[in-house]
Description:
0% strand, Arc Repressor Mutant, subunit A, mainly alpha, Tetracycline Repressor, domain 2
Amino acid sequence: MGSKQRREREKESLRRDILDAARDLFVKEGYENVSMRRIAEKIDYSPTTIYLYFEDKGDLLFQVCEETFSKLANKSESLLAEMADPVTTLRKIERAYVDFGLKYPNHYKVTFINRPELRDMSKYYEKSMGQKAFNLLKECVAECVRRKKFRRVDVEAASQALWASVHGVTALLITHPNFPWAEKNKLIDLVIDTMIQGFKV
């Protein structure tokens, strides 16, 4: 391995360490309570070093969220590529969303639960992986309508409703693990199937 490649790997490794430390602190201490200095202390670097990789704390939070959305978008993209029946694919996308959140609760908490309102959402969200992940869900809903599997609905509103339902069950299962829930898989599938059934012709 050449010296240039080694430097690139070291830079990527440090960037990874910064993201991991930030995610951990955002979950444990809250975004508002974590400073760039605090993140730097966790990885034994100076705050100046972090600013070489990230513009500010908002940018760092955005990149943590992008990583989460990227994983979700990639999974949805692969399911759409294999699509035969759009309703079946939509159900798989919804289930993959919940499964991801439960498998990576810290990612999910930072991205969807503990995340504060960013001052300029357009700066962060436009053309982001979050927008891409939602657009893939919307694409599947539109295909259900096009093939007359769903009645004619407002695709944007229907997609938001479907996302809201799976977000709700995911967030509740993560934040209230001691509640006497019904059998987990039965509950998740019932939420998804009930929502999808409501849009069918």
